[in-house]
């Protein structure tokens, strides 16, 4: 038996399903989580940054950033060191290996997104971007 939901309920369910499904599928395809890729991307833009600045700039929980960075350090993509001026501050930077992987992961992301958007023409993509931006603005108001 199929129930008919109001349009808003169906939109919410679809958004939830997208949110639940996109991260694990991206990770399977690209070999990295979207959050770790964002961290790599942020680190790719700078020589070195404090862990707290990175965490605040990405608006991610401090414990989650620490957990991600620990795994990335173990895999050789980043290094962390104490700031010689202030021992309480941890500085983070990409390794050469991390820079190379960042480029590979970016290409995997490009392919993944291209697959997601298969069948969408340029106009539909522009409209989708506008709608997603409006949704994000509405979420920020909550």
Structural write-up:
This protein has helices at residues 7-30, 34-44, 51-58, 62-74, 96-116, 122-141, and strands at 49-50, 78-82, 90-94. It is mainly alpha-helical and 142 residues long. Strands 1-3-2 form a three-stranded antiparallel beta sheet. Strand 2 (78-82) and strand 3 (90-94) form a beta hairpin. The chain is globular. The model has no long low-confidence stretch (mean pLDDT 93).
Which helices and strands, and how do they pair?
Elements: H1 7-30, H2 34-44, E1 49-50, H3 51-58, H4 62-74, E2 78-82, E3 90-94, H5 96-116, H6 122-141
Helix pairs in contact: 2-5
Task: Summarize, please.
With 142 residues, this protein is mainly alpha-helical.
Q: Distance between termini?
A: 35 Å
Q: How much is the radius of gyration in Å?
A: 19 Å
Q: How many E strands?
A: 3
> What is the share of helical residues?
55-70%
H/I helix tally: 6
- In N-to-C order, the SSE pattern is HHEHHEEHH
- Main sheet: strand order: 1-3-2
Mean of pLDDT: 93
The chain-level structural class is mainly alpha
The coarse overall form would be: globular
> What fraction of the residues are assigned to beta strands by DSSP?
5-15%
Strand count, sense and barrel status of the largest sheet are: 3 strands, antiparallel
